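Our consortium's second objective concerns turning raw sequence data into structural hypotheses that experimental partners can test. To show how far this objective has progressed, the report includes one record in full. It was chosen at random from the queue rather than selected for favorable results. The single chain below, 152 residues long, was entered without modification.
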Amino acid sequence: MQIRVPRWNGTVRRALPADQAAIEKLLAAARLPVEGVGTFLADFFVAEDAGQIVGAVGLERYGTCGMLRSLVVRAGRRGQGLGSALSQQLLEHSDGSGLIETYLLASTAVTFFPRFGFVDIEREQVPPDVQRSRDFLDTSPASAVVMRRSLR
């Protein structure tokens, strides 16, 4: 899957341990949860431009399922394709690592994710392990849209 990334010449790469503070700062500024970033840091990607982290996205693994979390782009850098580039890289990673389904909860970006193959589903359709994730239990409102991308 190729998503065109306009007006941006930066790099999307795997997150390093040294990136954790910058990722958490971006998440906090966007009022997104920072808890658990360190636990899942090995499955995070960052967008870097001129040596600064300007975006991030992470994946939590639950058996053969994944949970896309924490897609964030720095204010002032939105609308440049960074969210698409981060999402594409994370999903290629997810697809290549044996996961058969990827889920997410969205409150504001519900029109963004269908371009990557995500479809709306009911909460009850989410596997129990994923439903026990922090996003499902603590951070996302019950009104958040649940979406799934399946490789089956």
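The partners drew two points from this record. The first strand starts at residue 11 and ends at 14. Residues 63 and 98 are 9 Å apart (CA to CA). Both points have been shared with the crystallography group to help prioritize constructs.
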